[in-house]
Amino acid sequence: MRPTAPAASPTVKPAARPTGLTSLRRLGVQRGDRVLVQLPNWNEFIVIYLAAIRAGAVLVPIMPIYRHDEIGYILERSQARVAFTAGEFRKFDHLQMFRELRAKSPELRELVVVRGEAGANEQSIERLTEPNRRADDFDEPAIGPRPTADDGHVLIFTSGTEARPKGCFHTWNTIGFSVRGLAKAFELDRGCVTFAPSPVSHGTGLAMGVAVPILTGGSIHLQDVWQPKEALARIREHRCTHAATATPFVRMALDAFDPAVDDVSSMRMWICAGAPIPADLATEVAKVFKGCRLLPLYGA
Fold first, then answer.
1. Burial letters for 138-172: b for 16+ Cβ neighbours within 10 Å, e otherwise?
2. pLDDT tens digit string along 236-263?
């Protein structure tokens, strides 16, 4: 695995061919194995996603808000062999939680720490990545055959608001159908810069914030903690062209907008999912964020 931008930079131009994928093989990951990831919107998530799917593994992304009960259940159901977790994030010790869960999860063989201190019998992502390795130094035979479009791709669990979380198993054929459709419908291409404040471990965030720009060759700018004023500053700095969030994000961005400071002229559209869009909100976006359209997105 090889990150295409330093950890301090949340803007990523995904590599066409990530190097160092043999790291997952050294962890014992084989085709079809589950690789669980609970991370905020950090660029390491994208590196892990690319590495896992190229190795033929099935990514199991988990929302950062999940705790012992939900994660223990998902570990049991998914039978994940490897888990990637943060150290401490937003005053919660994710690493300690996974250490406690690992003792109860016999299938979980390896624990990899991202932006934290790995302990005994744990791996650090810095040891698995190879930032000094040349992009053309890629040992394709060591990774093994490429997965097919009908092999497992991701296993996404629902929020479980009414019962236990339910796992939705996707091949690239199933998730790729949506990804290609979204790219075509919203006319996204290599020149686009996706602003991604929605959790990339969620279905919408993974599709619009990760898979679509990887497919089209565009760039991704990640925000790990939603702060509307900071979001507007990043849109201005990185000339983001579109975003996909829940509708309340738009309301908060409008409330924080200061035309004397903020510049969203690069934004062509703000796509909303998860809640209806009030007609007056769409009108307000067109008036305040000139040139930006508020568009609905519905999934099944």
1. beeeebeeebeeebbbbbbbeeeeeeebeeeebbb
2. 999 999 999 999 999 999 999 999 999 9
DSSP character string of 77-137: HHT-SEEEEESEETTEEHHHHHHHHHTT-TT--EEEEESS---TT-EEHHHH--TTS-TT-
For the chain, domain boundaries: 11-171, 175-296
Question: Is 175-296 CATH 3.40.1180.10?
Answer: no
Q: What is the reported pTM?
A: 0.91
CATH of 11-171 given 3.90.180.10, 3.40.50.300, 3.40.50.12780, 3.40.50.1240: 3.40.50.12780
Which amino acid, 297? Answer: L
**Do the Cβ atoms of 214 and 166 come closer than 8 Å?**
no
Give the span between the Cα atoms of 220 and 206, in whole angstroms. 12
Q: Looking at the DSSP assignment, which residues form a beta bridge with residue 219?
A: 193
Structure tokens at 298: 């519905």
Q: What is the pLDDT of residues 212-234, one digit of tens each?
A: 999 999 999 999 999 999 999 99
Tokens of 98: 């996974």
